[in-house]
């Protein structure tokens, strides 16, 4: 008695499809975790690094890349424990690049880094990235630019933090001065009040003293007379 050949062949095919789905899910989960790790390790002062996009990207390209990555690593889809943290970092980076002033500030630092790298290669600062002299370098031009940008951004952040610290110190000094002025005014007000409250006592004391002095003078005159 022969079995049904169609059923015997369909079962292996279904198993293969199920296995393929499982492998795809596992691969997808792994890739999501890899992307989370990449974002967590990215240089936080360079939003382009976080979004893994070139600084020449248009505003629309940046938004598109952000949507792709944000959906890919969304905490609801990614099993990585730090997916929420990576998601917030990504969102902040997109926000910085969407802000015209912030992006221009970052671009200015990167452009400065580019000039320094090209000068170090003894090339004109107007040399385009496509120039053959920038190709085949070891380390590559893009890597040199990224490292130089990183150093400049770190230096800028250090200066910014020092300025903030100095401002806070100055604000603290001003606050202490104001507190001292307030304390001095309070002490003066308390002294004035105390002086007024004791006015009657001082007047009575003076009267008693004056009266006593007059009696002594009279007694002395009588004795001499």
TrEMBL record:
Native organism is: Galerina marginata (strain CBS 339.88)
State where composition is biased (Basic residues): 213-225
| Extent of Basic and acidic residues compositional bias | 175-205
| Top-rank lineage group of the source organism | Eukaryota
Q: Where is the J domain?
A: 46-110
Cross-referenced SMART domains = DnaJ (SM00271)
The segment annotated Disordered runs over: 175-225
- Which protein is depicted? J domain-containing protein
